[in-house]
Amino acid sequence: MEKTVKVSKPFMDDLKHTAFLWRKSRLTMIGSAIILVFLLMAAFAPLIAPYDPVQQNLQIKLQAPSWQHLFGTDQFGRDIFSRVIMGSRIALWIIFLVSVISGSIGIIVGVTAGYFGGIVDEVLMRITDMFLAFPSLVLAMAFAAMLGPNLTNTIIAISVVTWTTYARLSRAEATKVKSQPYIEAIRAAGGGNLRIMFLHVLPMCISPVLVQLTLRMGTIILTAASLGFLGLGVQPPTPEWGAMVSDGRNYLIDQWWISTFPGIFIAFVVLGFNLLGDGIRDMLDPRLRR
Amino acid sequence: MAETLIKIRNLKTYFPVKKSIFSKKLFVKAVDNVNMDVPKGSTFAVVGESGSGKTTLARTVLRLIEPTSGEIEFDGKNILELKGKDLLEVRRNMQIVFQDPYNSLHPRKLIKNIIGEGMKIHFKISDIEIRDRIAAVLKEVGLIDDHMYRYAHEFSGGQRQRIAFARAMVLKPKFIVLDEPTSALDVSVQAMVLKMLKEIKVQESLTYMFITHNLSLVDYIADKVAVMYVGEVVEMGDKTTIFNHPSHPYTDLLMASNPVPDPKFVREKRLLKGEIPSSINPPSGCRFHNRCPFADERCEREEPELREIKPGHFVRCHYPL
């Protein structure tokens, strides 16, 4: 008796309705398109980039955009187009890791606080409040400066300041779910706290956190770029967008292209994630659904 | 008289009410001094209005809520002192079916996993054995084995309640609490579910605690009845005794307000006045005195004991009818 899990009809209808809502919102479609281009760019970066992004060639430094160097060259003669393209991989890597790390920390802290309640809740949420009390960029700078500036530490620093949102969200969800009869039934069946928490309460908290994660991806890029710009993020010669904007700062009047192109890419990707995030939030809003 | 499966002595479950720091500490006395013997193989009905503490009593008996004081014996073991493995074994033997079938099944899990969860905790058996057992239990409650690959939202209320019952059954318990299992279902479905419950009880030699506010259901399914009022048992005994000769005025009025499916039946105009009092601050003396048609000043002053007026018939009243 072999069985495969059948996808049920209501689930398919739900998916169709989601697709319908997606098509109806032009901004969401634009956002999706930008993100799609961004993902393709990151995926095929070595094929698109015409030059080595870290190869210096001082003979062609500070050249204006031309057919040879589409976005011009920087003060070390590196091709900015190649660097911007390769930079998308760094940005994507940061987004991915920060989302995974901060999402997991947040959800574990939040579910534990919400599930146990009482003193555990009090302690964990006050720690969360402490993190929330600082402006996130300042806190991220402090962590980056403390740990030393490089890619790994940038990711850690951003994760450490962004998990709080997810902790609050999943706490709220866990508090709601833990008193439901379906959880009580597992307790009656003899399930222990850990089993109930991780196998039954936690899965219910994932979807609001996922929505929030997509909403915050733009912010993650911005924070990473800000750290890079301040010299506390990814170090040269790695082509990180924020650091590249910072590189061009001294040449801004005469060689505008060094800072401008990575800046435009940051702006577009952040815009894309924000439009997509808003769209996803609207699509999942029960008031807008049937 | 059959042997006793569950013995409850002086059980109290109080919930603290948070007021300001300075005021006296207040408690909701949800279950107050309850004594009960549930005989093996019986269907023990607990009836009462909303807020009378029926559900809290059931949850305390299953140790889903820790009681304030008292004793609960299951099969001769005091379950309030059990820990670890012994507690797990008792938990397997006592299961519950909740009132609301829409909230009692996990919305994100397949029926197979909802029913199988308890078996994974208690039995060391393979996935295939679990699947076969689930298929068998689903058949027993009137569903088909294919249903285990679906989600809860794909089922109707009656079917969900059958699934909830299958989840309890699959652990081969001795005792199942049915907490208003049919109150969320429409009448035709109610009848089918009740019939199923009755049949399976005989097949598996189960003991039920049936919680309800519907006296017609009690008449259909129960052997023994306990009537609760503001956290206390006011009358307890065999169903036939209580239905034919209710001795507590509250039981009497409850019976009188129960609809009778007979158009020629002329009802006496006797109604239960007022609402159930708060269990934070219950009335002095007899808790029923402010709604009782026969109350005098003794009822106001002196709290009656639960007395055995006939063998096996207990009443908490100074002037039993």
Structure description:
- The complex is a heterodimer of chains A (290) and B (321).
- With 290 residues, chain A is mostly helical.
- Chain A has helices at 9-24, 26-43, 45-48, 80-116, 118-133, 136-147, 151-178, 181-188, 193-229, 241-247, 257-284.
- In chain A, helix 2 packs across helix 4 (80-116).
- The longest helix of chain A has 37 residues, at 80-116.
- Helices cover 31% and strands 24% of the residues of chain B.
- Chain B contains ten helices and twelve strands.
- An eight-stranded mixed beta sheet of chain B has the order 6-7-8-3-9-10-12-11, with helices on both faces. In chain B, strands 2-1-4-5 form a four-stranded antiparallel beta sheet.
- In chain B, strand 11 (307-310) and strand 12 form a beta hairpin.
- Chain B is globular and about 65 Å long.
- Chain B starts with a strand and ends in a 6-residue tail after the last strand.
- At the A-B interface, helix 8 and helix 9 of A face helix 2, strand 6 and helix 3 of B.
Number of helices of chain A: 11
Largest interface, Cβ cutoff 8 Å: A-B, 21 and 32 residues
Oligomerization category of the chains in this entry: heterodimer
In N-to-C order, the SSE pattern of chain B is: EEEHEEHEHHHEHEHEEHHHEE
- Percent of residues in helices of chain B: 25-40%
What structural class do the secondary elements of chain B suggest? alpha/beta
Would you identify the regions of chain B where 5 or more consecutive residues have pLDDT less than 50?
none
- The residue fraction in helices of chain A comes out at over 70%
Summarize model confidence as the mean pLDDT of chain B: 88
Looking across the biggest beta sheet of chain B, what order are the strands in? 6-7-8-3-9-10-12-11
CATH class bucket of chain B: Alpha Beta
Strand content of chain A: under 5%
Going by helix content, strand content and strand pairing, the class of chain A is mainly alpha
- Major sheet characteristics of chain A: none
